[in-house]
Structure formats: structure tokens, C-alpha cells
Amino acid sequence: MSNKIRWGVLGVAKIATVKVIPAMQRGTLTEIAAIASRDLAKAENAARELGIPKAYGSYEDLIADPTIDAIYNPLPNHLHVPWSVKAAEAGKHVLCEKPIALTIGETNELIAARDRTGVKIGEAFMVHVHPQWLRTLEIVRSGEIGDLRAFNCVFSYNNRDPHNIRNIAEIGGGTLMDIGCYPIHTSRWIFGEEPRKVSALIDRDPAFGTDRLVSAILDYPSGQATFLCSTQMTPFQRMTFYGTAGRVEVEIPVNAPPDKETRIFVQTTELRTETFPVCDQYTLQGDAFSRAILGQGDVPVPLENALKNMAVIDALFRSARSGSWEAPLA
Questions:
Q1: How many Å apart are CA 143 and CA 132, to the nearest integer?
Q2: How many domains does the chain have?
Q3: Which of 96, 114, 182, 232 fits a disulfide with 121 by CB distance 3.0 to 4.6 angstroms?
């Protein structure tokens, strides 16, 4: 294997064609060598526009290409595990969009496929490699804001398109799967713990059946995390960590712009702003995963982590139904 991983992309999803592929094409270890769609014309059009050498009219043909080392899977949520498993069985490493699966059981299927085939599989939480998040982790771990006690997040956008995959319940649409997974992941990461129990209120769209507004509490051994997420509210995102001696606020925690500086705000005795140079978190993610494939590092977000995130999502859905606290079961 060369020092540049040759990637194939399943589908022509907007996140892939607009954000991830152009970013990975700028990576030092990533080469986008092929793209597939169930509509060959769509694959050929995307390949032409993005300068990708090969286009396939089926996912199977791309996965069967012996020159492809790794697969990026940005398909709708219900197709994450089936196609990631097929890719793994063909000997391809897989970087799969979040949420990794629809259920804990599906996630375990993916873990079994990884262990059976020996390939690398990871969940595409690109925030995990962004400098603003690595610095946030460093500040909290250093004790500068004292002992971490609380986390709060508001994350929302407004999308009422009935044809958008985020508004189709049966394929894994809805707020918690699409964006609620982020405050779950980041709070687990920065606390360095797993929540003991969780509670949620969910409001569902009467036409779509999807969860359109979610309020949640995660009870950690060291403190509490709260978040509010919505797919039908004014667009906004902010995450803040509160300690006994200060706080860290991440201004644009998830959709960090690839062409502008990013900022976090740190307040102890005084408020200061830390600014980070322009970078593309999708470029960083592709290179980090490629390094893991080359044996030069760990998978940034391995499936064991993804399983625990899915367990919290599952527990929040159960809590909304039961009206009680529920414990994550992974």
C-alpha cells in the first residue's frame, strides 16, 4: 500500500460532494479515486465536477474495485451498517457517517464484521480532530476551569422539507440521530465518562413522525450535561463546559467553517478568546483515519465509542417513551 490511501465514496450525498470530498482531496494522505451512485449518470456527473477518476453505477462495483483501499459511507442512516459491512467483507476500511447505526444491535453487527475481517472502521465525528476541540479538551483536563461540573448545548436548524432524509422516520431521520448525537459525543469525550442515566422530552412532527425537538439530561458521575436540539427552530449552535473555577465556550462547535478562523471563549478570573487558524475538519479527519490505516495512529472514533454513543441515543428514546430515567445499556 502506498502512503496515500485510495478512497471510494458511496453515493452523491450533499455532505460528500460539497464538504467531505473536496476537503479530502486536499489531504496529504487521502486520494478520492472513485465515486458510486445507483444512478450512473449522477456518479459520472459528480466525478466530472470533482475531478474523480472513476465513476460506478452501483455500490457493489465500487466495493469490488481492487484498487480501492477505503470506503467513505455518507449514505442515509439506515444504509450505514449494511453497506459498511459489505465493504468490510470486501477487505475495505470504512469511515462511516454518524450516527453509525440505527440501533445498538446494528452497531454490534458492525463491530463483529470489523473483528471478523480485520479492517479499520470508524465513525465520522469530524469534531474529534478539530484544533478548537483538542484545545477545549486540554483546558478542561488541565484543571484551569476547576472540576468539570456541567455541559450545555443548543443546536438547531429549520428544515421542513418532507423529501429530506432528515424528515423521514423509517430511514433514521429526526433530531436526535442527526444532531443530538453531537452533544452526546462531545460531552462524553470531554467529561471522560459515560452517563449513568439519562432523561428526555421529545416532541414529534405530526406529519413526519420524526423527533423535531429534544431536550435531554445526561447524568455523569462528575456532573450533568443538558442539551436542546431541533430540526424546526431558528439555526443556532453553541456548546459550553462549566467548572468550579471557570468555563469554556465553543462558538461554532459542529459546523466549524473551513475558510474562517474559529474561536473558543475561556473565562476564569477574566474572559479571554482563543483563536484557531483556518483549517478544514474534514481534511483533518480523512488524514487521521488514513494514518490509522497506515498503522501510524488510532482510529479517531472507534466502534467501541460509537456503540456507547448509540446506547445513550437509545436510552433517550426509551426515556421519552417511559417518562422515566433510563440507563444506557451498552
A1: 17
A2: 2
A3: 114
CA–CA separation, 247 and 245 (whole Å): 7
Give the CATH number for residue 260.
Answer: 3.30.360.10
Kindly tell me the sign of the dihedral angle through the C-alpha atoms of 161, 165, 171, 176: negative
pLDDT tens digits for 103-135?
Answer: 999 999 999 999 999 999 999 999 999 999 999
Q: Which amino acid is at 224?
A: Q
Given pLDDT bands bounded at 50, 70 and 90, which one contains residue 1?
Answer: very low
State how far the Cα of 247 lies from the Cα of 187, in Å rounded to an integer. 14
CB 240 within 8 A of CB 248: yes
Eight-state DSSP code of residue 232:
E
* Mean pLDDT on 21-46: 97
Q: How confident is the model at residue 2 (pLDDT cuts 50, 70, 90)?
A: low
Q: Report which of 237, 196, 207 is spatially closest to residue 319, judged by C-alpha positions.
A: 196
Structural domain of residue 254, as residue ranges?
127-279+299-322
Burial class from Cβ neighbours inside 10 Å (0-12, 13-18, 19+) for residue 145 reads buried
Residue 301 pLDDT > 80? yes
Distances (CA, A) of 248 to 24, 45, 114, 138, 186: 30, 44, 36, 11, 13
Please state whether beta strands 148-158 and 232-243 pair in parallel, antiparallel, or not at all (unpaired).
antiparallel
Preceding omega of 99 cis (within 30 degrees of 0):
yes
Joined grid coordinates for residue 254: 459542529
CA–CA separation, 61 and 5 (whole Å): 19
Give the single-character DSSP code of 160. Answer: -
Using a 10 angstrom Cβ sphere, with 0-12 exposed, 13-18 middle and 19 or more buried, the burial of residue 319 is: buried
Whether 327 is in a domain gets the answer: no
Helix (H, G, I), strand (E, B) or coil at 31: strand
- How far apart CA 122 and CA 292 sit, in angstroms, is 10
